[in-house]
Protein: 2,4-dienoyl-CoA reductase
Organism: Desulfoscipio geothermicus DSM 3669
Amino acid sequence: MLFNEGKIGNINLKNRLVMLPTVTNLAQDGFVTDREIEYYNRRSTDVSLVIVEASYVNIFGRFFNNQLGIDSDEKIDGLKKLSNIIHQNGAKAGIQLAMHNPKFKPADFSKEEVQGFIEDFAKAAVRAKKAGFDMVELHFAHGWFVNQFLSPDVNKRTDEYGGSFEGRTKFALEILRKVKTYVPDIAVICRINADDITCGGFNIEESVEFAKMLEENGANGLNISAGVGSTSEYHISPMSIEDMPLLKLVKRIKNNVGIPVIAANKLGFAENWEQILKDNAADFIGIARGLIGDPDCVAKLKKGNGNDIRYCIHCNQACIAYILKGLPVSCMINPEVGREKEFEVKTDNPLDIAVIGGGPAGMAAAVYLAKKGHRVELFEKSDKLGGQLNTAKIPPHKGEIGRVVEYLERELRKNNIAVHLNRNVTVEEIKNMPFDKVVIAAGSVPRKINGDMDIVSYQAVDVLSGDLPEGTGIIVIGGGLTGLETAEFLAEKGKNVTVLEAKDEVGDGVFPMVRKLLLIRLQKLNVGIITKAAINHISDKKLSYNVGGIEKEIKFDDIVIAIGNKPDETFKELKGNDKYIFIGDCNVMATAVEAIRDGAELSLKI
């Protein structure tokens, strides 16, 4: 059913697969850029409908610095280029109209100002039509501006735009009606929350009634999501959230309306997409992060190559996290995002290149250098590829990380790269290798604590790899991501775990959504967390530490060290020679996202 034709309003669609809007930060001062056009060009060939990212209808409602705008007529020409490229690729073009300014609440505006915002949406829809779009989507979800009017715990207005359910829905319905009045001949979809998933927020009972009202007022389709800023794990679910978390809510809304419904958020694999349609839970499958990671996923599915799809692993480390930092969208498994043209260049001077190290940086470097036209061989000292990703996938809820290794291994095979496992190459061997260039991607090694602690302790990486402490009472020293995940891993195996962290709080630098969910799980597992802890000494299965100048003591059976890694310096004497290029952790400590991108970007320089 995925490739059956469909229809939304007056738009005929060639299949049931829709590219959902995601902010890219590829615009410049609200205007369309060449990078943005290429981004959509790369992703619009095989889906039936592309809904271009959240575009602000007024400057007040611009949430991201590099967000796309549709607030002035000067932007129409650039938007027309976007709709044209989407149409040339055989898809229909939609654009999401949005505004969001979290500094303000609904009660902060006069009635006249609210009606001015309604006019802004309608004028933006007119611009969308002039720019050649077939459809507009009205963003009424995710805690953004209109969603705040819908929410009983946020909307404290006392006039006709607040109070009762009818009052809280009035703003959204008037936007819809005015848009339909101004542009009656293009389709209008509304993106709504099935549930805010907050205490006292907009819930599924109200959402069902709201969906009916939207249909009655002219909406041609609904795009169903959930969650607001504080519960965003329900519209950009990370790997710790089970697949298809919203499907029951989506189906309930669909059962109450007669217009098409789009399902979204972590919908599993292609076979799940098909089943969603067969079960009549939704009419269309919405794909967002999946098309960031693999622009060809629909083409592969259509050709029967579903096993080759580079499925999103829901890490949120380079899509959502980057966007929130104001950076252009990226992806752990696809460093080409927003830079597609850069990676199309082939070399006219093929070189013989050795890559030392089969972790994420080394594998990515080998793949992208080979794609560019170089002759590449990869040497890995262990019996398998993947480096630290092999331990990163072991903690609870982290199994999807393994798909990164599987994908890179497939790419190595596709590009006929010779891989030599169990090859612990020495410095002298490297010096004598008959290669034009040697890429050093040796990775990193765990940091150790000074003194005698290493005699009585385990390293987190070893614990995750299977060297489980025998004792019951475990102290994990280090409250970063690895320490917290190791604590969860041990607690799930019945250990009594306490985490000691020197900083003011644990999870420093961890993406807030991931940190929040991890801390909730640790609390349920009764994992103790002690912050601002300065360790004094260890003796006789007792650890002494200071907190705020007060000395305390804790008994233990075993200690696990998780205080981070440092670059592997095995090959440091080769630095400074142009023949040898250091990438990944052995050069600068970084995340897997940065390691893979580092490896890929090397191909742009050689």
About this structure: The radius of gyration is 26 Å. The chain has a mean pLDDT of 96. The chain is about 30% helix and 20% strand. The domain at 6-340 is CATH 3.20.20.70 (TIM Barrel).
